[in-house]
Amino acid sequence: MEAEKDTKLLNLNSGLLIYIVATLIVAKVISVFLISKPRKHLPPVVKAWPPVVGGLIRFLKGPILMLREEYPKLGSVFTLNLFHKNITFLIGPEVSAHFFKASESDLSQQEVYQFNVPTFGPGVVFDVDYSVRQEQFRFFTEALRVTKLKGYVDQMVVEAEEYFSKWGDSGEVDLKYELEHLIILTASRCLLGREVRDQLFDDVSALFHDLDNGMLPISVLFPYLPIPAHRRRDKARKKLAEIFARIISTRKSTGKSGNDMLQCFIDSKYKDGRPTTEAEVTGLLIAALFAGQHTSSITSTWTGAYLLRHKEYLSAVVDEQKQLLEKHGDKVDHDILAEMDVLYRSIKEALRLHPPLIMLLRSSHSDFSVKSREGKEFDIPKGHIVATSPAFANRLSHIYKNPDIYDPNRFAVGREEDKVAGAFSYISFGGGRHGCLGEPFAYLQIKAIWSHLLRNFELELISPFPEIDWNAMVVGVKGNVMVRYKRKKLSVN
Ligand code: HEM
Q: Which residues bind heme (predicted)?
């Protein structure tokens, strides 16, 4: 009787067990097929050794070198584990639309470009919410409208004429140094205003020098590290703020204005009617100078180096100048610079090969997916840093024929290699939502300089063709670029 009871209990227990197991299996099947989230397909990951820090070491050894090695193996979308962060690279126009077009709430600049805050100062650009930043970028857009640019060009031309009038009849110069210097003078006049250009140039450029030297690779990770370079940066910023506060209040009290970016920022108003403060005006001017100065001077030096190296392209730009001399005489203004198409393509090609901003970054705040050029769908989780690289993407061989060769004609009508693969094939100026606001200003400035040189000098590159200075924050030209010049007016015949 007892045994029969035990057997019944056992049967009951095993029946219960089978029931529970069956329920669990059904629940699992339902969860897998019906209610579970689809599995994430993460991009392939760069192999790096030793674990944990291997990725960081490869990145620090040279991001472009790493991209050159990994792109052929992993394709257009891949991730690098960078110590505590993942960076996902989107390389090429086929995969980078989201990078350029996403809203700030999905892919933001604020965190990744935070290191600029101690240089630009409080209350501007990456120190403020996106809504305020958008308004401040509207001030930039207004300050760089064609009507304003026309006035700036006249000042650019005067600066170039004055600067090169100090060269002798013949001689040898470091073109890199000369163009850097001229571009600071021009930027001072057009952006910072005549008070700085005419009276305070030496003081202000020394202070900018300290600001510049306070932005080091280490500053990207630790912008407030108490090192001498950062202390000098902070002191210089404070002094600049004092200088500009004085200039602004004098302009306001005397009613004297200027045809410069300073005046545009003084006159700018937020949507609610609030005018800009003196501190904001100073911060925005510093941001403009940082965005435009090294980038433009590096580009004008590469343009010169390539033109002097390639006689056929030099002849083409000289011929264009002759035609314009014939048409307009000596005059150079905004509209005449706009006619310099051959020179434009020569600058654009130098900038394709050598974009000074080699890596563009965003921080991802929401998951997104991307189809790689190779046809695979990948999910990029929020929290990743997302990156693209002008220096690498501008030389993709499926976009550009012989990508490492200097060939300005690739942009001419009929070829237009930067357009056939669609938007974001040429990204030296970024693109989309955050595309460069100073692009027209930069071209005008470089054209004003080079049209003057081509019309007034014969030039010859006498040092070896320059190498790339990968160690600079804004990647530029390594060493001197020595040029022999002879004063000779270009004649129409
Ligand atoms: C050859 C010269 C220049 C190059 C190669 C260049 C390159 C760039 C690039 C790549 C970006 C996009 C950054 C990103 O997406 O993260 C950018 C943005 C910007 N640039 Fe330039 N730039 C040049 C000259 C200038 C000049 C002369 C100015 C102003 C006077 C300027 C003002 C700006 C501003 C305000 C932005 C931010 C736009 C935004 O985020 O909405 N740039 N530039």
A: 436
d(CA 397, CA 208): 39
Q: How far is CA 372 from the centre of its chain?
A: 24
d(CA 149, CA 296): 16
- Does the beta carbon of 223 sit less than 6 angstroms from any atom of ligand 1? no
430 Rama sector, left if φ>0, alpha if ψ -120 to 50, beta otherwise: left
Range of the domain at 160: 54-487
Nearest CA to ligand 1 atom 6: 429
Rounded to the nearest whole angstrom, what is the distance from the C-alpha of residue 140 to the centroid of ligand 1?
11
Pocket lining: 156 vs ligand 1, CB cutoff 6 Å: no
Report the pLDDT averaged over residues 103-109: 96
190 annotated to bind ligand: no
Atom 36 (ligand 1): residue with closest C-alpha?
436
**Short-list 485, 446, 247, 425, CA closest to 346:** 446
Give the residue, by CA position, lying nearest to ligand 1 atom 1: 296
Both tokens of 452, joined, read: 């003057």
Residue 24 half-sphere exposure toward CB, CA atoms < 13 A: 6
Query: 356 lies in a domain?
Result: yes
Q: Confirm or reject: Cβ of 284 under 6 Å from ligand 1.
A: no
Alpha-carbon distance values, 274 to 135, 266, 269, 271 (Å): 11, 11, 6, 7
16 located within any domain: no
Query: How many domains would you assign to the chain?
Result: 1
Closest listed residue to residue 214, CA positions, set 235, 200, 196, 241? 235
- The Cα 212–Cα 291 span in angstroms is 12
Sequence-distant (6+) residues with CB within 8 A of 30 are none
Cβ of 124 closer than 6 Å to ligand 1, yes or no, is no
Where do the H-state alpha helices sit in 268-426? 278-309, 311-328, 334-338, 341-353, 390-393, 417-420
pTM of the shown model: 0.92
CATH code assigned at 364 = 1.10.630.10
> Could you tell me the end-to-end alpha-carbon distance of the chain, in angstroms, rounded to an integer?
127
| 295 pocket-lining for ligand 1 (C-beta < 6 Å) | yes
The verdict on residue 314 lying in a domain is yes
For 444-464, what is each residue's pLDDT tens digit?
999 999 999 999 999 999 999
Decide if 6 is inside a domain: no
Q: pLDDT tens across 288-315, in order?
A: 999 999 999 999 999 999 999 999 999 9
Confidence of residue 9 (pLDDT cuts 50, 70, 90): very low
